[in-house]
Amino acid sequence: MKKVFIIHGFQGTPNGGWRPWLMAELEKKDIYACALPMPDPEWPLCSEWVGEIERAVEWSVGDEVYLVGHSLGATAILRYLENDNVHPIQGAVLVAGPISKNDNRTIDNFLEDGFDFSTISSKCGRFAVIQGDDDPYVPMKDAERLSSELSAELTVVQGGKHLNTSAGWFELPPCLDALKEMMG
């Protein structure tokens, strides 16, 4: 069975923005989709978010698992995939995911010590990166580096900003397209 787990970002909710739309679109294709509620999104701890992803993936051993992360959710997916003892997944879509420190000190615990891209790549079949060309929170260089390090296609959304609710995003077709391509 194909399963998609969606991870929201900092101060996000499972049913905000384009996540309900994506779940509905996947359901039309008989694909199980669930937006995970991340612990304490106002004061996130990387270990807790990674633990939540780990529980969902472990629950789905034997299934074809894909992860979709928005903003800090994308960063949490990377941290999950860095662990040696995690189950590999089929694919990951990383939307507006930061990999370098920014003005938000609250999320520093997700961004310390760099990333082990070799380990991350070994735990996931395919990656896609989606970024707004004018994102006020995540610089384009983060998306470009992710794309390069993970051999992932980079989709740049013109005028997309942070691809979130406040930027007016209640549907995100590039994300659905990336998942469909990964799933074949």
How does this structure look, described?
This protein has 184 residues and is α/β, with parallel strands linked by helices. The chain has a single domain (2-183), classed as Rossmann fold, CATH 3.40.50.1820. It contains 7 helices and 6 strands, in the order βαβαβαβααβαβα. The chain has helices spanning 19-28, 46-59, 72-82, 108-111, 117-122, 140-149, 173-183; strands spanning 2-7, 32-36, 64-70, 89-95, 124-132, 153-157. It has a 6-stranded parallel sheet, sandwiched between helices.
Number of strand elements: 6
- Series of secondary-structure elements, N-terminal to C-terminal: EHEHEHEHHEHEH
Mean pLDDT over the full residue set: 97
Reading side by side through the largest sheet, how are the strands ordered? 2-1-3-4-5-6
The level of helicity is 25-40%
- The domain count comes to 1
CATH top level? Alpha Beta
Distance between the termini: 14 Å
Number of helices: 7
Report the sheet with the most strands, covering strand number, pairing sense and barrel closure: 6 strands, parallel
What is the CATH homologous superfamily assignment?
Answer: Alpha/Beta hydrolase fold, catalytic domain
The coarse overall form would be: globular
By secondary-structure content and strand pairing, the structural class works out as alpha/beta
Low-confidence stretches: none
Stated plainly, the CATH topology is called Rossmann fold
Strand content: 15-25%
CATH architecture label:
3-Layer(aba) Sandwich
Radius of gyration, whole Å? 15 Å
